[in-house]
Design a protein that fits this description.
Layout: E1 7-9, E2 12-14, H1 18-32, H2 36-39, H3 42-68, H4 77-86, E3 99-106, E4 111-112, E5 117-119, E6 124-127, E7 131-132, E8 142-146, E9 161-162, E10 172-175, H5 189-199, H6 207-216, E11 226-231, E12 234-239, H7 244-254, E13 266-271, E14 278-281, E15 295-297, H8 304-307, E16 315-318, E17 321-323, E18 338-340, E19 345-352, E20 355-362, E21 366-377, H9 385-400, E22 409-410, H10 411-421, E23 431-440, E24 443-445, E25 453-454, E26 461-463, E27 469-473
Parallel strand pairs: 21-26, 21-27
Antiparallel strand pairs: 1-2, 3-8, 3-10, 4-7, 5-6, 5-9, 6-8, 11-12, 13-14, 13-18, 14-17, 15-18, 16-17, 19-20, 21-23, 22-25, 23-24
Helix pairs in contact: 1-3, 4-5, 6-7, 9-10
Length: about 475
């Protein structure tokens, strides 16, 4: 027989039909013994072929079932144990040990390493993952497993001692805020299957994918506000929400080369010649009127001597312009300039004894969007403008608030969202006018010439509310 061919569909491998197996068998015999029909009775040939095809059907079905079992969801115990071994999980049959969730408290940024041991005075428990003390002074609950087999109760508050030594001068405490989980004599196949399946659920195809998985698991982080970008030879990590130390810990765990991180850079694109020069930036500067200690470095031209490194007190004019209090009359600006401070950048220090690591990431600013929508219809029937407004408003808000960080508003998508939301009130073919107007952070915005998009600040995200969306018939 030739090599087995498997047909895969959305439901997995499917069996080869008996007729196809018979045809392949006959073709194989004919190629090896071309005149076999001349020397054997037809009834004997048919009897042998039918028996062989029956055996081939059984073999083919076994092969299909084997292929379809290569998943923790439905694999047999032998293959499940092989999958567990690939994930570093012991085979089924071992008793499950008593476990407890513990919370550590201490200096923000201090890392409690995987394998750290805590105790309730009788039994000891080992942390199964690394944890970091968050900004509030405590870590998220950490899963800890007993160092010996057995089942016992673990009342809340009983695990309060550190068995692993800590550096001199370091303050660290531990407590279990909830009761522990007594072990079982033997783990059930359902629990074992669930553990193997969970081990397969982490995206680890490269640093960026793994980091996004870790960031998504942090409480308070919005998935649409996560972006891991390659900037030439460095990486810019954008993450909105969550505790900054937990975000830093995720970056520390996933990114093996911390000097490869870069934060946000706000560039100066122009400085006016005036008694009180106006500075223009490429991104929203995030400064406030009266702010002092603002620095600009790296500009070229005769203004360099007056502005580079000078501590500026500023007055904000627009999100991208401000006066700097410097008289530039008679001077020139050629190019360049980097603005600091940059309020987008967050840097946390992680203490992984005996070393300290500074981790920088970008907290994306919010861009408040106001949208005006004017519509009209050729419907011969009375259409409730209030119903259209109420129905479309929610759909528009949901679309704007789902746009990933740094991505534009797509007016074509916005049109479809509007039309689909009111289709039961105004059929699309009776909609004769649909006009959009926009303002972002109280500054009028328009679609890009020749395209149907409203650009975003590449490190920011759009946000709106129902009160910011005005829908009128006209």
């Amino acid at each position: 027989m030739t090599a087995q061919t498997i047909t895969m569909t959305a439901t997995g491998a499917i069996p080869t039909s008996p007729q196809t197996l018979r045809d392949e068998l006959v073709a194989y015999v004919a190629s090896d013994v071309p005149d076999y029909t001349a020397n054997l009775p037809g009834t004997l040939i048919e009897d042998i072929a039918s028996t062989d095809v029956g055996a081939l059907v059984v073999c083919d079905q076994a092969y299909v079932e084997l292929i379809n079992s290569i998943s923790p969801v439905n694999s047999n115990l032998f293959i499940l144990n092989q999958q567990a071994a690939a994930a570093g999980i012991p085979p089924m049959g071992f008793p499950s040990r008593t476990a407890v969730y513990c919370t550590f408290s201490g200096l923000a940024g201090y890392i409690v390493s995987q394998g750290f041991i805590v105790s309730d005075g009788v039994y000891q428990y080992t942390t199964q993952e690394s944890a970091v003390i968050a900004a509030g002074g405590s870590s998220s609950p950490v899963y800890c497993v007993a160092t010996q087999d057995g089942s016992w109760s673990v009342p809340s508050g009983s695990v309060n001692a550190l068995a692993t030594s800590i550096p001199t001068g370091t303050t660290l405490t531990v407590v279990n805020l909830t009761d522990g989980i007594p072990g079982e004599s033997t783990e059930s196949i359902g629990d074992f299957r669930a553990r193997v399946l969970q081990s397969w659920s982490v995206g680890s195809q490269g640093m960026a994918a793994y980091l996004k998985t870790l960031l998504t698991g942090i409480t308070g982080v919005q998935q649409r506000l996560i972006s891991v970008r390659q900037e030439t030879t460095q990486w810019e990590v954008i993450c909105g929400g969550g505790d900054p130390y937990e975000v830093g810990m995720a970056i520390y765990q996933a990114l093996f080369y911390l000097p490869g991180l870069t934060g946000s850079v706000i560039l100066v694109t122009g400085i006016s010649v005036a008694a009180n020069a106006i500075v223009t930036t490429n991104l929203n500067h995030g400064l406030t009127t009266g702010q002092t200690g603002v620095l600009i470095n790296g500009i070229t031209g005769t203004m360099a001597g007056s502005i580079n490194g000078a501590s500026l007190t500023i007055v904000v004019l627009t999100p991208t312009t401000f006066t700097c209090g410097i008289n530039t009359t008679g001077l020139t600006y050629i190019s360049g300039g980097v603005l600091t401070p940059n309020t987008r950048n967050v840097t946390v220090n992680l203490y992984d004894y005996p070393d300290t690591y500074a981790v920088t990431f970008v907290n994306p600013p919010m861009q408040t969007v106001h949208i005006g929508i004017t519509w009209n219809t050729s419907s011969p029937y009375v259409v409730s403008a209030a119903a259209v407004s109420a129905t479309a408003n929610i759909a528009v808000v949901n679309y704007i608030n789902s746009i990933p960080v740094g991505q534009p508003i797509n007016e074509l998508t916005l049109e479809e969202v509007f039309k689909e939301s009111i289709a039961d009130i105004v059929p699309p073919e009776l909609l004769v006018r649909l006009v959009f107007t926009y303002s972002i952070n109280s500054v009028n915005a328009s679609v890009v010439s020749g395209e149907k998009i409203v650009l975003s600040d590449p490190e920011s995200y759009f946000y709106t509310t129902q009160s910011n969306v005005t829908i009128t018939q006209g």
